[in-house]
Amino acid sequence: MSEKDSNWIRQKVERILPKVMKPGRYVGGEWNIIHKNWDQTQVHTAFIFPDVYEVGMSNLALRIIYGLINSYDEYLCERAFAPWPDMEEKLKEEGLPLYALESFRPLKDFDVLGFTLQYELSYTNILNILRLSGIPLRSAERRGAQSYPWIIAGGPCAYNPEPIAPFIDFFVLGEAEEQYPEILKIIKEGKASKAGKEELLRQLAELQGIYVPEFYEFAYQVDGTIGELKVKEGIPRVVKKAVLKDFDAAYFPEKVIVPYTEAVHDRVMLEVMRGCTRGCRFCQAGMIYRPLRERSPERLLEQAEKAIEATGYEEISLVSLSTSDYSCVNWVLQELLAKMQQKAVSVSLPSLRLDSFDVEIAEQVQKVRKSGLTFAPEAGTQRLRDVINKGVTEEDLLKTAEAAFQAGWSSIKLYYMIGLPTETYEDLDGIVDQAKKVLAVARKVGRKGARVTVSASSFVPKPHTPFQWEGQDSPEVLKEKQEYLRRRLKDQHIKFLYHDIGASFMEAVLARGDRRLAELLEKAVLKGCKFDGWSEYFRFDLWQEAWRETGVDPHFYANRKFSLDEVLAWDHLSPGISKEFLLNEYKKALAGVVTPDCRGRCGKCGVCPDIARMVMYREKGNQKDVRDE
């Protein structure tokens, strides 16, 4: 499509924008947007976040990949998001395809469409985006004379992408900063030589972290479990994730796009470290993002100065899986606050742990008193916290609550999970007791109007965690547990929030699913499923219709306890952690045995090829703290 055609799309879009909510989602043209010449670049890519604009614009991966790819003269990267249903309706009425925000070119015109898989319930949006773009859903349907973009995907859900595998040409496992440019180089050379798709896929499969589903075929047993995985000749039997070794020198976007409409996290984000050493047994992110790597304090301060200058943001957030575990957090905070105070820029810590919470730090970063603090005990009893290896105690919670209330906070939010392995009603009673104890602490220090919010999500077993073999509680059991907590938490000073059980059930189905679920996904999309992560659009009834019509038994995936020796749908995709380690952790969980933080003692998970290097990183951070004391 020519630039003239793109202008035609732009003009038609401008006419329908007054008829939709939040038209700023669809206009582009933001501050720091990158416009590149289509004809002077050799490979055209679009990064697609399969959710609404304001959610996607908060995604750090989008910021990194967008800036990184556009830093190459020969490549172009634009953005697209899932249109809200009102905009989708108008696009269909006008016969308009889904387009990229920078050039208004249809997504079908690009060489590569890259999706990020942050959440299983976004899969329906991915298929819907392809439909709105006029692109056949299945990879096998995109072969032939007509040229279609490469459809690729990465992110945390890529570690078991089997339910969506038939729709994607290849997946990127792990960190894409180094691999993505290599991918585009192969595609660029293939484009020039007019190489066939299979030839290019074989070249791509040689890169670390690249998983091409069509080279892998599953055979199933009579009972429905996987019997065998067949791999094409010359293709790696196990795909190992790509790992960024020099995190300090890695590309980081300092000149990020500033949206016209407010994003969910509308601020500068400084990534202080990747990975986590805590070893919570339910946490997929804590397993797949290993090993721990920290960014140097000097580099963070340099990035902060440049990012604020380039964006005009008034807030900096220090992000990671557990920011208070960053070895130089105190020093970096002090320096940032000193440098940014004169610019009226605040600093926030979104990830705080009960056992490393420092009320003085919290007061520093929240000069203007915020309404509440959020912590995650996860379970109501110490027994169950040991099972999940949470590593915090009730004493940590009460001590932290007392310090926070004394310092002036008026509310605390507590996150828990229900349905955890080995959970009993005594553990649910523990949630109630803890909420009441936190209120009692508030009254003891004179905060009589204090409020406690208890949020209870349903446990979802995730691949590559010690609990990957566990089944989720049935929807009926989870409903009973929610009702039990609701009755027991009736108090004007306690607010109880809980997640939609149907959505958690479908998340579990897709998280532990295999390739046979592709038909279910396709059927659900055709019935109208989309924005399944949004309560107002999640349609459990449509999913029920879809699994009845396709003959899929969702309980086989969500609620069944997997045999310890069965082949799992994700066994051939490796985050670096050995299956033996996960199995050992599972057995320790059932025995209530804890595993210490691996900063103190290596747990031998298999990720770190050089344990001494990881310890040196930690010591370097500690030396920084000591030196500046």
Any overview of this molecule?
The chain has 21 helices and 19 strands. The protein has 629 residues and is an alpha/beta fold. The chain has a domain at 3-240: Cobalamin-binding domain (Rossmann fold, 3-Layer(aba) Sandwich). A six-stranded mixed beta sheet has the order 2-1-3-4-5-6. Strands 15-16-17-18 form a four-stranded parallel beta sheet. α17 packs across α18. The longest helix is centred in the last third of the chain and has 20 residues, at 425-444. The model is unreliable at 610-629 (pLDDT under 50).
Lateral arrangement of strands in the main beta sheet = 2-1-3-4-5-6
> What spatial form do the alpha-carbon principal axes imply?
globular
> What is the CATH first-level class name of the domain at 3-240?
Alpha Beta
What is the CATH architecture term of the domain at 3-240? 3-Layer(aba) Sandwich
Number of strands: 19
The fold-level CATH name of the domain at 3-240 is Rossmann fold
Q: What's the tally of helices? A: 21
Question: What's the pLDDT, averaged over the residues?
Answer: 91
Q: Compute the gyration radius: what is it?
A: 25 Å
Describe the largest sheet: 6 strands, mixed
**Low-pLDDT windows of residues:** 610-629
Distance between the termini: 61 Å
> Which percent band covers the strand fraction?
5-15%
Helix percent band: 25-40%
CATH superfamily annotation of the domain at 3-240: Cobalamin-binding domain
* Class from secondary-structure proportions: alpha/beta
